[in-house]
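Duplicate of #3305? Posting structure anyway:
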């Protein structure tokens, strides 16, 4: 088979496995790989050839399988003529067996590197180039088609690990983190290598690069981690600085600790006062009190806890070497925490009774506030109702005036009333003058005449006081009509 494939222009030898008696080859212009394997025949003196063809290549692959068997038969016949003494025969199986579907791969001739006199040089078992091709197959592949996603992922993770290795030289991460990162990258490289076997997906070169980057990243990260471990070891030179820092912290605490007096009322009065004479961070509220006592030893802490127990703080008790929390029967809650590094003790008390009173006071204030707001809302509602009523009355008045004006032919009611009064008086005056003249101007009517003149003055004055600049055209027409009638009546009297 090797000799036939080496001289055959229709096939290109890709790989030869002498142990399993199998060869892998490809055909130009066809995606996929063919595999031919020599297996024992039906008798001990015979053997058979099994082939695996790419199913997705279709009818073309079947035709190439038939050609392979034909060319192999011709090669065997030629060897039989030369080696007539050989008792062993080879039987070819039918070209119908298809054991696996191989993804599209490029047609390549790896078994021979260069043509010789226009022909391919066969790849002999002892040829050095076969060893070279086997090594290159570990690093690269001739698979066409899509690139393996796993190879890309492995390359990306390896690149990230390589960057991490450079960063580790400065930040000194834990060694365990470096190893975990390296294991993840290595596992991805192995999976990508398996995904890019001959006949599978493309990307073997990416896998090889990822493996190299993983090794370099591991070395760099371990070097960085080892450097950080050395720097973390305490040195004698650092001791003065640490001592100075502790001294500064102690000085800061001493400056904050001030003399204090324990309250005699409120929440603090429900628990005993500590033996300490100085404290810091003192907070007093209506229902709670807290402070941090200074210069308190572990023995002082235990003594104070025992005093609290004696005061009845045993409900829901929880205690450790440095903390104590409990409540009394009234529901008051106390919490004590001791800090042995700074010799301080934090004390806090929450009074349930004071808290309930404070809550009640706030509830009463909230109720009073709501009542005040409700009262203001009610007053605002009444004001709005009165305002609305006033607006409605004014609107009704305007509508009534408009209606009266419409009924009077468009004359303003005030103007019409004044003119009607003036015309009525003038008619009354003319009637009086006609009778006065007809009776010969008797002295008995003189008194009535004087009253008439006084009423005339009041009527005319009322008419003169009106602002005629606000009159409408209808008002003026009505005025002229009244004056015309009055003048005609006066003319008839004279």
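Output from current build:
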């Amino acid at each position: 088979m090797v000799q036939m494939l080496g001289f055959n222009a229709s096939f290109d030898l890709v790989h030869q496995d002498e142990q399993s008696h199998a060869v892998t080859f490809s055909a130009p212009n066809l995606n996929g790989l063919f595999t031919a394997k020599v297996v024992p025949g039906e008798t001990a003196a015979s053997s058979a050839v099994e082939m695996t063809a790419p199913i997705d290549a279709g009818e073309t692959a079947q035709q190439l399988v038939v050609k392979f068997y034909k060319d192999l038969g011709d090669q065997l016949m030629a060897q039989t003529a030369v080696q007539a003494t050989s008792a062993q025969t080879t039987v070819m199986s039918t070209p119908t067996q298809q054991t696996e579907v191989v993804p599209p791969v490029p047609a390549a001739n790896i078994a021979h590197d260069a043509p010789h006199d226009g022909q391919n040089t066969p790849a002999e078992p002892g040829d050095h180039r076969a060893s070279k091709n086997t090594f290159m197959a570990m690093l690269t592949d001739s698979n066409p088609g899509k690139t393996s996603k796993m190879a890309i992922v492995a390359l990306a993770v390896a690149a990230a690990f390589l960057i991490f290795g450079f960063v580790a030289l400065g930040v000194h991460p834990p060694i365990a983190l470096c190893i975990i990162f390296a294991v993840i990258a290595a596992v991805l490289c192995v999976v990508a290598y398996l995904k890019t076997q001959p006949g599978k997906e493309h990307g073997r070169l990416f896998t090889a690069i990822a493996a190299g980057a993983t090794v370099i990243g591991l070395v760099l990260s371990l070097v960085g981690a080892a450097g950080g471990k050395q720097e973390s070891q305490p040195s004698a030179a650092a001791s003065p600085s640490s001592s100075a820092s502790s001294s500064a912290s102690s000085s800061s605490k001493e400056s904050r600790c001030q003399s204090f007096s324990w309250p005699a009322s409120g929440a603090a009065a429900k628990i005993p006062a500590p033996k300490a004479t100085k404290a810091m961070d003192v907070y007093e509220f209506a229902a709670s009190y807290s402070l941090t006592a200074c210069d308190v030893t572990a023995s002082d802490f235990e003594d104070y806890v025992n005093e609290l127990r004696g005061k009845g703080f045993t409900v829901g008790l929880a205690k450790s070497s440095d903390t104590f929390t409990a409540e009394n029967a009234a529901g008051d809650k106390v919490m004590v925490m001791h800090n042995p590094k700074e010799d301080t003790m934090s004390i806090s008390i929450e009074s349930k009774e004071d808290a309930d009173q404070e809550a009640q006071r706030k509830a009463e204030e909230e109720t009073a506030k709501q009542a005040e707001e409700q009262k203001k809302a009610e007053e605002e509602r009444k004001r709005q109702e009165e305002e609305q009523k006033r607006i409605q009355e004014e609107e009704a008045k305007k509508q009534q005036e408009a209606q009266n004006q419409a009924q009077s032919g468009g004359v303003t009611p005030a103007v019409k009333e004044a003119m009607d009064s003036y015309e009525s008086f003038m008619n009354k005056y003319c009637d009086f003058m006609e009778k006065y003249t007809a009776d010969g101007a008797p002295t008995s009517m003189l008194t009535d005449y004087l009253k008439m003149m006084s009423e005339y003055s009041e009527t005319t004055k009322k008419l003169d006081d009106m602002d005629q600049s606000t009159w409408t055209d209808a008002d003026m027409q009505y005025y002229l009509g009244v004056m015309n009638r009055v003048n005609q009546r006066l003319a008839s009297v004279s």
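Confirmed duplicate; merging threads. Confidence is low (pLDDT under 50) at residues 85-132. The longest strand covers residues 34-40.
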